[in-house]
Amino acid sequence: MVDKSHEYGYIPKSPTQSTTSNTGVFEANDVVDLITSSKYALQAFNAEVLNIAGAGGGTGAFSGSNSNQGGGGGAGGYRNSYDTENSGGQSSTEDKISVPLGTAITVTVGAGGNGGGNNNGGGGQFDGYNGNDSVFGSHTATKGGGGVYNTTNTPNSGTVGSGGGGKKKVTDISGVHTLATPAQGSPGNPGGSSSGGNGGGAGGSFNAHGSNGHSSSITGSAVTRGSGGGRAGGTTTGSNGTANEGDGGQGGSYNSNAYGSRAGGNGGSGVVIVRYPNTFTITVGGGLTSSTATDGSDKVTTFTAGTDTVSFSA
Questions:
Q1: pLDDT of 90-101, one tens digit each?
Q2: pTM over cut 0.70
Q3: Is the pLDDT of residue 170 over 70?
Q4: Which letter, b or e, does each residue of 201-210 get, where b requires 16 or more Cβ atoms within 10 Å of its Cβ?
Q5: What phi and psi, each to the nearest 5 degrees, are found at residue 31?
């Protein structure tokens, strides 16, 4: 290729051309030549992103005795670079994400995992199923862990954002789910003396309904997301986690005076929320479901389903 490095820019000062800096006035063909020869710095801006994965489903109950109350599913991994808000597992705010202009960026919203079945027609595995990762470019929020029915024979071990809880009398679930790095959530609780264990959540502390999530105001309004699924209670099928909040599914119940065993609830789907200066425009691929609003001097694009690419322009 002919060296054209001397011809770009204008008098009185010659431009600099490199992958990190370009100065001067360029014609369109000059820019193409520079990009081809890796001598052009693509413009970029910093975006604030809340990335939450799909949550795990709750454990189904196996009829036969009250010792089989199901545990809750773990919340989807929770990663946050907005303002000074925490990420999951009480980790600090992550760095803002550099977004290059005119470059295709893959976005995926993770689906929640199904709840575990029962032996009254639910069938299949009793463990809650793991959720699915959410993605913004190279930034990944890790799936939530399904509720644990049997620690020696679970199909859902592996790395998760938050861990699923165990069914009643599963006293050690420490080896089932490994928490992702950087921290995105908390481990689940093993089963207790009278009920299943709660699923882990973004906040880490536990209450009667599961592990707490985090509140974020990235859209302009405070919303709590990423809560762990609650342990089984009463005589009902486990409730589903809230869609687009990455909340874990509730464990299924067993009661000898009621119908018998019930299935676990499904994990809630994740969400990807991107906040950026309103001087930029986003183009969204047809495979994604999204909406864009304005908050002050920023735009906020919320992705609620699907996978495809997006790009930004000035």
A1: 899 999 999 999
A2: yes
A3: yes
A4: bbbbebeebb
A5: -60, -45
